[in-house]
Amino acid sequence: MPEAVLMKEKKLSSLLAHKEFTLYLLARVISHFGDSIDSIAYSWMVYMLTGSKIMMGTLFALNFVPGILFNFFTGALVDRWSKRKVIVITYSCRGLLVIFTALLYWQGWLQPWHLYVLTFTISTIECFSHPAEMAIVPSLLPKHKLLSANSISTSATRTAELAGLAITGGMIAFLGISGAILLDGITFFTAATLIAFIRVNKEETGEDASQSSAAKTSFIQEIKFGLKFLFSNRMIVTIVICAAYVNLCLAPYNVLTPVYVAEILKSGPQGLSILGIGMISGMIVSALWISHKGTQFKKSQLIILGYLMLGLSYSLLYLPTFFQVHSLYFAVVITFCMGMSVSLISTPATTYFMETVPKELLGRVGAIYSMICTIAIPIGSSLAGFLGEWMKVNLLFLIFGLLMIVPFFYLLSRRSFREI
């Protein structure tokens, strides 16, 4: 057996030897499988229900408004609570709301205003689950295994998403949009059950320290301390600012992909699934490579390369309009490259964050980190919806793809960043 395969199996078996991490990983795989189905079914449902690019943009933007409004507070709260219980409760609540959405659409009762209410509510719940998920991982594994764990976790969840995307087109044809969305709701309850079996030492999670700190300091003081820590680390600030900028540039792709598939590629839900498969496949390949070779490179090198690849490949989505026969397949190759770029950026950035931030601060600092990263998304999403009404979608992708390359030159010029 090749040495590379043996090394990969050894790393994986050493991670899976930690039972609690294995349960957490399995829960993420199941929930991501459901989410990948929902991402296609929900997007197509909105497109079929409204046909409005402006509404698609504003609805996508609404996804991130709760994070901007509440992440300052939810992160500090999560640091005071059991991370495991937070994840179980939030997963269960999200499952109920997703199932409710499926029921409304199945009965023909779903109205556009329902989408706004449900989106805002689910996104508010995610303000609690995301910092809890980030904060619990370092308590499940030794610090030196975090990079491998993050890359393996990315590979596993992306593989689950790939499987979900591969069957979504057929599932929508067989079960309908409501049936596909219902399945996502069920996966949340399954994942919550697995998380409920995780047992973590409170000392390892930093919960004892957080509760002791909570007894001595006010809620506002805890938030201020999280802010102070985040902004005292210039590398984290740099990563956050670049992430916010890239999220702004990616907004047209995230919002208008159904329109791109329908109007430029002349395809339907199956085409949307195929593009998603290309993206996820790229993420998997990149994450597997990072798990095997990533430690041989500086985190900054991976991130910088990722930004260059992402900008160039995003720009190339302009070209499929010139192909009459194989435009969809050409677009899949491009989204594959985009997926590789995303893992090159996100995996080392997340690992650096987990390695740098003390465990007792991960909840609040992670929430603030997430808030700043996503603060530009509502602006970009709304802008994408309006621009999409009078500009060809592929031209919009070209413009924002070229703008995406800016972080590459910025990070390359910062010597301090190149050292991490």
UniProtKB/TrEMBL annotation:
The keyword Translocase does not apply. Keywords: Cell membrane, Membrane, Transmembrane, Transmembrane helix, Transport. It holds the Pfam family MFS_1. InterPro entries: MFS, MFS_dom, MFS_trans_sf. Gene3D superfamilies: MFS general substrate transporter like domains. It is a multi-pass membrane protein. Residues 235-420 form the Major facilitator superfamily (MFS) profile domain. It is found in: Cell membrane. The chain crosses the membrane at residues 54-74, 86-106, 172-198, 235-253, 273-290, 302-323, 329-354, 366-387, 393-412. It comes from the Bacteria. This is MFS transporter. It comes from Paenibacillus motobuensis.
